[in-house]
Design brief:
The protein has 117 residues and is mostly beta strands. Helices cover 0% and strands 56% of the residues. The protein has no helices and eleven strands. Strands 2, 4, 5, 6, 9, 10 and 11 form a seven-stranded mixed beta sheet that branches. Strands 1-3-8-7 form a four-stranded antiparallel beta sheet, with no helix packed on it. A hairpin with a 4-residue loop joins strand 7 and strand 8. It is globular, with a radius of gyration of 13 Å. The relative contact order is 0.32.
Length: 117
């Protein structure tokens, strides 16, 4: 099992920045990749960004490219999401996720990000 705990959410004005963290524990050696997803009220959960745990290859949703940066600290088993130039439409609960194979099968509890206009 892998346990994931997010932190760093909060309230910020449009144009501001936030940095999310996700601490992984348990069988972290089994992780192939980690990612961030978000779910806004009344909407389905959507992919934000992901990173391979060994090579560091990154992927981003078009809506956050150039504004968000995903990174990881393998030594500390921690995932980050630096969010700059935040927009009101970025308001959502952000979830950290990990996958061992083709599907993300471990999820954190989520952290709220609210961007005011």
């Amino acid at each position: 099992q892998v346990q994931l705990v997010e932190s760093g959410g909060g309230l910020v004005q449009a144009g501001g920045s936030l940095r999310l963290s996700c601490a992984a524990s348990g069988r972290t050696f089994s992780i192939y990749a980690m990612g961030w997803f978000r779910q806004a009220p009344g909407k389905e959960r959507e992919f934000v960004a992901s990173i391979s745990w060994i090579g560091g290859r990154t992927y981003y949703a078009d809506s956050v490219k150039g504004r968000f940066t995903i990174s990881r600290d393998n030594a500390k088993n921690t995932l980050f999401l630096q969010m700059n130039s935040l927009k009101p439409e970025d308001t959502a609960v952000y979830y950290c996720a990990a996958r061992r194979g083709s599907e993300f099968d471990y999820w954190g509890q989520g952290t709220q990000v609210t961007v005011s206009s």
